[in-house]
Design a protein that fits this description.
Pfam families: HTH_3. It comes from Flavobacterium psychroterrae. InterPro entries: Cro/C1-type_HTH, Lambda_DNA-bd_dom_sf. This is Helix-turn-helix transcriptional regulator. Keywords: DNA-binding. The relative contact order is 0.09. This protein folds into 2 domains: 73 residues, lambda repressor-like DNA-binding domains (434 Repressor (Amino-terminal Domain)), CATH 1.10.260; 30 residues. α2 packs across α3. By secondary structure, the protein is mainly α. It contains 8 helices and no strands.
Length: 131
């Protein structure tokens, strides 16, 4: 029993790369001189002619081969293997364990706020006495 490999859907690959780039269909259409509906039709097509594929690839900043060979798994592997964070809270945000008492910090901020308000009152009183 043989398992046939699923053919690459070039239009879907174009759509995914475009979305990863944060580009709308209208912007891609304008850049390659087509209508938004034409881009929608291209993204729905399994195959795209080489001329259009090359123009789209140029606008998206990738090669035509990258569009043909695109896979979500590869992108996720690249992201997972290259993402580094100097801030552990990004990765372990749920398990954040502060090494200080948050109530102490709130109290410090409140005391600072009261001090600033006292200074403001003193300043305003000096201004009123000067007039």
């Amino acid at each position: 029993m043989s398992i046939a490999t699923k053919p690459k859907h070039i239009g879907r690959n174009i759509s995914r790369i475009r979305e990863l780039r944060g580009m709308k269909q209208e912007a891609l259409a304008f850049a390659i001189g087509l209508s938004q509906q034409s881009v929608s039709n291209i993204e729905g097509s399994e195959n795209v002619d080489e001329e259009k594929l090359t123009a789209i690839a140029e606008v998206l900043g990738v090669s035509a081969e990258a569009i043909k060979n695109y896979s979500d798994e590869t992108v996720l592997n690249v992201i997972n293997n290259t993402f580094t964070s100097n801030d552990n809270s990004t990765i372990n945000g749920v398990n954040l364990q502060p090494n200080f008492n948050p109530l102490d910090k709130i109290l410090e901020l409140y005391e600072r706020l009261v001090e600033v308000e006292k200074e403001k009152i003193e300043y305003l009183e000096r201004l009123l006495k000067g007039k």
